Amino acid sequence: MLRLRGTSRLSSRQLKNAIGSQEFQVTTYARPDDLLITRGKGSILYDDLHNKKFVDFTAGIAVTSLGHSNESVSKILCDQSKKLVHSSNLYYNAECLELSKKIVEKTKALGGQHDCSKVFLCSTGTEANEAALKFAKKHGSLLGPKKHGIVAFENSFHGRTMGALSVTSNPKYRTPFGDLVPGTSFLNIQDELSVLSNFIKSKKDEIAGLIVEPVQGEGGVFPIPAEKLIGLKQICTENDVVVIHDEIQCGMGRTGKLWAHAYLPKEAHPDIFSAAKALGNGFPIAATMVNEKINNALQVGDHGTTYGGNPLGAAVGCYVMDTIGDEKFLQDVVRKGSAVQESLKKLWDLYPQHITNLRGQGLMIGLEFAEAPKELIKKCRDSGLLIITAGKSTVRFVPPLTITDEEIQEGLSIFEKAVKEVYG
Ligand SMILES: Cc1ncc(COP(=O)(O)O)c(C=O)c1O
C-alpha cells in the first residue's frame, strides 16, 4: 500500500532502521548518533525515536526563519507541485519572474542595495557566491586582461565548491583539496583601512572583486563595523573593484533589516550580493543580485543552472520575501534579538571567567567562551535545546525569526541551567 511519507509518522521499527543506516552516509559531518529528527513545528523539533522534544535555536543553520513545517509554505509547495515543478531556464516561468521582481522592489523599498537591478536565481548559497564571483570576474575582464583576482577575508565562509572554497579562509576546509582557483588574496578585516587600501591600490590591475560577509557567520558571528564596510566600498570604487556582500546567513531579516547592508548608507551598498538559506525556508533556492554596472558586463551564456528559479522554489521564495520583507516583522526581530542579548549579558556577568564576549545583530547572536563549549552543547541537547557553535569557541543563537517570546524563554532557561551545570 502506498504510504504517504511526511504526512504519517514512521513506525518505531522504521525509525530504528533509519538510525541504523548511518553506515551508508559519507563521514563529512560529526553528527550525534543518539538523535534522529523526525518532525518540526514552528521553533520545536521532535525526535520520535527517542521521544524527545527540542527548542530549536539553530533553525537549520539560519534557514527555517518562518518556522518548521510552516503551513503557508507547505500549502504553496503542495499547490505549486500540482501546477508546475520545473520547466528549465530555457523559458520564463511566472513564479521566477515574480520572485525576481519582488526581490528587487523589496530590496530598494527596505533600504537595501539602492541600485539593485537584476537577479540570478539558483539553488544553494555556494552557487549564489559562485555566480557573484563569476560576475565580478567578467566585469573585471572587460577592464583589463589580468583583472580577475578576488580579495577575501580571514575568518570568512563562502561555501565548499572549488570556487567558493577559494575565497573561504579556513585552512581545515581548504588544505586537503590541493590547488584552488588562483588569484585570491586574504586580508584581515581588523586591519586599518589604510593597510587594506594600500594592498588594493597596489594590485588594482589584478583585482576584480572583494567578497565580505557583513556579519561573519561561521567564523564566529562577527558583525563588521559599518565604518569598515563604508571605507572598503569607497576604496573598491576608486580602484574599479566590485564589492560583493555575502548575505547568505546574515540576510533575509536575520539582523533585523531585510539585508544586513541596509544598515549602511547607500554609497556603501554592494555591487553584488548573494542570498540563500532563509529565502526558501528550507526549500533550496538562492539568489545573486546585481546592479546595472554588473549586469552590463554579462551576456547570454556567461552563466547558468538547471534548477535555479524553478517554480516550486520561486513560489516559496515569493511568500518568504512578502513575510520577512515587512517593517513590522523586522522590528519584532530586533525586539526579540535585544531580549536575547540582555539575558545573555546577565549570564556573561555571572560567568566572566568562562564567557568572554557577546556579539550580534537581531537574531544572529554569538556568545564567546574561553574554550570550545563542546560539553555545553551536549548538555543543552540532553536537556531539550538544539544550539550550535561558530568559529572556535562561540555559541551561535540563530532561532527561527518567528520564535515566540515563551519559546525564547524556554530555550534560554535550558541554556542558563546547562551553563551553570558545566561551569558553575
Ligand atoms: C555566509 C555563507 N556563505 C555561503 C554559505 C554556503 O551556503 P550553502 O551551504 O547553501 O551552499 C554559507 C553556509 O553556511 C554561509 O553561511
**N/C terminus separation:** 55 Å
Q: How large is the radius of gyration?
A: 22 Å
Flag low-confidence runs.
none
Strand portion: 15-25%
CATH class of the largest domain: Alpha Beta
Number of helices: 14
Bound molecules: pyridoxal-5'-phosphate
User: What's the CATH architecture name of the largest domain?
Assistant: 3-Layer(aba) Sandwich
What level of helicity do the residues show?
A: 25-40%
Largest sheet: 7 strands, mixed
Oligomeric state of this protein: single chain
The secondary-structure class comes to alpha/beta
What name goes with the CATH superfamily of the largest domain? Type I PLP-dependent aspartate aminotransferase-like (Major domain)
Spatially, the strands of the biggest sheet line up as: 4-12-11-10-7-5-6
DSSP strand tally = 17
CATH topology name of the largest domain: Aspartate Aminotransferase, domain 2
* Arithmetic mean pLDDT: 96
GO cellular component, one term: mitochondrial matrix
InterPro entries: AcOrn/SuccOrn_fam (IPR004636), Aminotrans_3 (IPR005814), Aminotrans_3_PPA_site (IPR049704), Class-III_PLP-dep_AT (IPR050103), PyrdxlP-dep_Trfase (IPR015424), PyrdxlP-dep_Trfase_major (IPR015421), PyrdxlP-dep_Trfase_small (IPR015422)
Pfam family, one: Aminotran_3
Family: Belongs to the class-III pyridoxal-phosphate-dependent aminotransferase family.
